[in-house]
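Limitations
The structure tokens in this dataset are predictions for the assembled complex, not deposited experimental models. Users should treat interface geometry with appropriate caution, especially where small molecules or nucleic acid strands are included. An illustrative entry is reproduced here so readers can see what is and is not provided.
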Amino acid sequence: MGTFSFGSLLRNAMAGHKDWPRQWRAPDPKPAYDAIIVGAGGHGLATAYYLAKEHGVRNVAVLEKGWLGGGNTGRNTTIIRSNYLWEESEALYDHAVKLWEGLSHELNYNVMYSPRGVLMLAHNIHDIQVFKRHVHANRLAGIDNEWLTAEQAKEFCPPLNIAPGMRYPVLGAALRRRGGVARYDAVAWGYARAADRLGVDIIQNCEVKGIRRDANGAVTGVETTRGDIATKKIGVVAAGHTSVVMSMADVRMPLESFPLQALVSEPVKPVMPCVVMSNTIHAYISQSDKGELVIGAGTDQYISYSQTGGLHITTHTLDAICELFPMFRRMRMLRNWGGIVDVTPDRSPIIGKTPVPGLFVNCGWGTGGFKATPGSGHVFAATIARDEPHPIAAPFTMERFVTGRLIDEAAAAAVAH
Amino acid sequence: MLLILCPYCGPRAEIEFRCGGESHIERPGPYSEVDDGAWADYLFTRKNPKGEHRERWLHAAGCRQWFNVARDTVSHTILAVYPMGKTRPPTEAGT
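Predicted assembly:
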């Protein structure tokens, strides 16, 4: 399959880009695997990659009911940051940020990670107090996060409107300089290609229909639309459909699935130097390398598996965008879509073992899972390989809802709550 | 946006309502006999079905009454509306 290099780019450019090989195989499922990952999104592919690379578990299949990276990996707004409040979350998300920094090199695939800064706006006294608390908590954890006045925020992000007459004036902002964005497709493709090269079978259009278990309850395999496959270990990384997959093994989850929407504008020249998020008035925005403004909206209030959300949710967000960035008022929006996000009661993910032997789950990333992709896959692979939680994943078990040790993250996402 | 038939006010737009989540969750008891697992189940575990879902809605910007809705979570079709405290309409397939 070859390694990408300046030489290979040059060679293929001279040849008219007609000789690029397939990036990964399209294998038929084997009768048995050492481990099966359900879901070929970023988190699932990363899990398979680290299983093969760091734990030597190469006889792995990733089963995907649709196409690779076609769920939330291809539907999010690609924001990367780790300025969470609690130590458990800081450790988890910063683990991911550290992996992001070397990811293009590690995968030999340009994921276009761009740490351009994430600005989180404060619009009232409560916001100021909460963000300053976050800034201090982050600095204690060694995560950069700083407080800016409204004027400093304007200097960092010139299109921002800080006029005092706004309905929700900008009173200041927390700036995470190491935060940024990455190219979502490249993340899925890079992990898929790297995992495939290590021997992982990525099987698309293969929906899991049932989970087989022996007399002791331990998993023995899966039933799929492409036949039965035997395995002793199953890692479920099915995002919004986690409740559905887990119910096949009679495991009930503390999850609810909601539509989360995003939209992009027509492409324009570079105008947004950073990511801007506002919890209070429900909007976040950045600019892609193609020039589109990428805008994230909120969740609908009801459970849904439809991958579409209510139009009033996006118009509410656009009201906020127009107020924060008056220069965008005449921009036309090109596309609007929804993804189904699985939300936990404490807005923190669930990573770990389940009551069913051999069944592992990585879910509950809610409205902000993309940023965690490398770290999530890394700690989940270790959990599956060793059959015990990775130290960073240990606080994120399902048992926390019984013991009461919740990780109550109000910082989990800009707009969900 | 959903068009919701409030049993007291008639059809109104979704923005007048608040969704209160899954219906028919019974508080376990008596208190002294309920273990932590059962409390966790009561507080946090949800059916989250792909298909028919029973949920509570509040007509927050209207009559301020709560009621139950049976709704399909894929098509968003509202299959039934029925009062609080009532069991599921027998004609519906239960979830």
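Some entries come with short summary sentences. For this one: Residues 297 and 315 of chain A are 9 Å apart (CA to CA).
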